[in-house]
Protein 1
Amino acid sequence: MRTAPRERRQTGGFTLLELLIATVVAAFILIAINGTYFGALRLNNSTQDRVDRDLVLYRTLDLVRRDVSGLMVPPKNPTPPAGTFAGQFQDTPTDSPTQEFSATRVSPDFYTSSGGIDGWNPFSEVQVVTYFLAPATDGSNTKNLVRAVTRNMLPVEQATTDEQTLITGISAVEFDYYDGTEWNNTWDSTATFTLPAAIKFSLTFAQAGTAPALAPIELVIPVVVSTSTSLTTALQAQSTGGTQ
């Protein structure tokens, strides 16, 4: 007795071509996801680096502003030189608590009242602040802006100076002084018997690789402290202008 041939079952599945197409599509999707993720990660890292650098920059500018705004009046008589709480304002001081500092000086000695007073600090608000450019410590061809602070103005022995690295990756820093007519890159209160009308602080970041050079960042701070000489000069200028 002959039996009818058994029918073959129709089994469902993917062909090799379908698997290849699905693999290619999945690969393109993973490449797109990978590019998007790492692009967002790089953007986040660069944004965070920029925020961190800007915070350091704003802190530096704020310290410079406070130091200049709190300038003490220099003694009228240049001899003897620097007093205890208010010395001469010279871009190249003849007598300074940071005279032996090995870095490059970029500012005068600021005899200023910008020091903080609290329950743990035995010193007054008067301090001497000087800015220097020192070679970078990371091996790069850049410089660090260093703020040297002398707090103890009445030392029993030798006064000590604290060094604070404010910002790194710098190529140049400059202080300029406004005499009421034009900007000068030098100032000597023993010759002028007065302080400048304003001080401009310029900071330039070092160029990073092939990136375009950044423009200098400038901060102009008016000097509100007036000596008797500057007041006399201002009154004479006002009187002369009124008679014309």
Protein 2
Amino acid sequence: MSATGQRDTPPELEIRRRLFKKGLRYRVDYPVIAKPRRRGDIVFPRLKLAIFVDGCFWHGCPIHGTWPKSNADFWRKKIETNQARDIDTNERLREQGWLVLRFWEHESPDEVVDRIIDVVEVRKSELARPTDLERERD
């Protein structure tokens, strides 16, 4: 388990490859909150869109997550701490106007990429719309 890195996991790499092929450009392992330090797996900073690809074991997937029998208390606490940090990160980012998307590592990369592209297009169109203040000036 210690061999699993925090970034560049196979599901992340596959999603990033497909996004890049579709012409999207993004930041990888990008700091979205300074303190406490939180980094998005795939981030579109201008669109305030943070994407996380969560590992089934490490984040307690309800479908594939398992609770180890060896050193059970340690692992339960570790996974529950990760889940609490995920919720805290989501809340902090949303308070700052970010949109957070979370995907499980087992989800289809094609479906994940399609969802991300849909959201990126919506966020871009929202940025392109004039604000109420800009409309009043015209």
Protein 3
Amino acid sequence: MPMSLAQPPARPAPSRIFFWTLAGLLGLLLWDASGLDLALARWFGSASGFALENHWLWRGLLHDDIRPWPWGLELGLLVAVFWPVGSFRQLPTARRAQLALGTLAALLVISSLKLRSHTSCPWDLQEFGGTATYLSHWTWGLRDGGRGGCFPAGHASAGFSFISGFFAFRHALPATARRWLAAAMAAGLIFGLAQQVRGAHYMSHTFWTGWLCWTVAAVIDAAVSRWLARSRAPAAAPTPAMASGLAALAPLTPAK
């Protein structure tokens, strides 16, 4: 069977995606067991609170000024589904929709989990001038005496939610996919670090947000890939009428 001159670009196999998802989960569980969350909080906080909580960089530039941006970018992605520009033109409509809806789904998942969380932020702890006692976010059913609503890190999702772009582009433009992943990861970590410095989150909250956004994007990517494969299958297979017609034409084909 002759091979097509235009071979599809290489992309991470599903097994590799599963491996990195599982490896990330194991790393997170090890971090949670290490006790480093509280140790890092103590680097920036004291009995009088967190000195950099209202700093112009950590709160102003990297928090307050950033908050509307992910929703504006999400609106742009939704528009690009129907009116693509640049690299988006090289993606089929289904992949453009995957990028936009995957990003939106990640933002909504993180927001929903935060609303139901009983975990309080570092600045709520008694040792930093608050009223809460430290409890792991895995201590379900118990309240720590604080305001709660602090797990996972919502602000970090402003970067991590766009990991969906990696999964959408990896099928056609692997180099673009890698750049998209690097930008989303860097933005999420920077925003998470800003909240760590201010006492607004533990570092594990940021890491869990990254893993959850990756997992949401991976699940949606698998579903879209399966749907595309099934929709192409009938078109790829010749019908009985087409097969009989090709067989009848075979004797008329000149030998080479």
Protein 4
Amino acid sequence: MKQQILDLSKQLMAVESIDSKKDKLQEVIEVAKKHLEGFTIEEFINENKRPSILAYAGTTRPEKFKIILNAHLDVVSGNPDQYAGVEKDGKLYGRGAIDMKAAGAVEILIFKELAKTLPYPIGLQLVTDEEIGGYDGTQLQIKKGVGADFVIAGEPTSFGINNKAKGIVWMNVKTKGIAAHGAYQWKGESAILKMRDMVESIVKEYPVLTKEEWRTTVNIATIETTNTTYNKVPDNCLMKLDIRFIPEDWDTIKDKLTKMFTGAELEFLEVEPPQITDENNTYVKALQAATGVVTGTPSDVIVKHGGSDIRHFNGVKQDGVTFGPIGEGLHSDNEWVDIKSLEQYYEILKEFLTKLK
């Protein structure tokens, strides 16, 4: 099985499936489809030209799958030599090695082996837009009625079971002042100084992290004004914010921000749900046990600061986690996945799927 995993991983990694090359997104899907002959394959695509597929046994999609294995086959851009998977010292190097084409290859192969023999319905969901939000892949499929009792996305977790991740708010805060000549400040009102009060509110309520902590954060991405001259009191100011909120703040974050920025004009551009599945969930416990059988050590339940497509399922009250092999360097020039862990990942998923009732 090791060689099959490596061969398919390299086939997927050889495709430069970045969002700016829509033909490559389709090409990587076609590579996957060649390994799924004999299964029903539903294809999804909208006007944004980011394809995804859903594979399952039988001719009719079940109303709800028991398990969905989810993998994204898109990657961020890389150097040309990163699109050839290279084996060295027990590791597979290249773009998509850990994020997450190798895990996707494992999911394809385990689905292919077990989907027709399991006593319950299982789906394989392959998408090409997770790196830019997952709206045209996972979210589109959910809107088309695809659902499951439990979803596993093979994102890099080094065998930790990631049941919580932060939600996202992207927003603009705008202040208005009164323009005046810079030599006559008392005749104007600086929009920038008004924005200073907003910044102080952020620093007070959400201090900048100096070490890893599980709490809501606010990143001030930019502060700008349309004023380009020295001798003018600016009458407008814009602050762009990236807020990452913990699931515990889900119900209150928008109201809290609105109150904190009283007096400013607010524009909420994105409000994305967090990822949250109970750590005592039956499937989480089963996945912990399966990892223990294969590796000798049951998985820890972990939290992550970055989001994944699991949030789209959680947003419609369906459970799921990210769970993947060992590796490092995602989005970097030194991305790798541990080859032994890919074999273990296969065996863990097999143990998990075959032991479910």
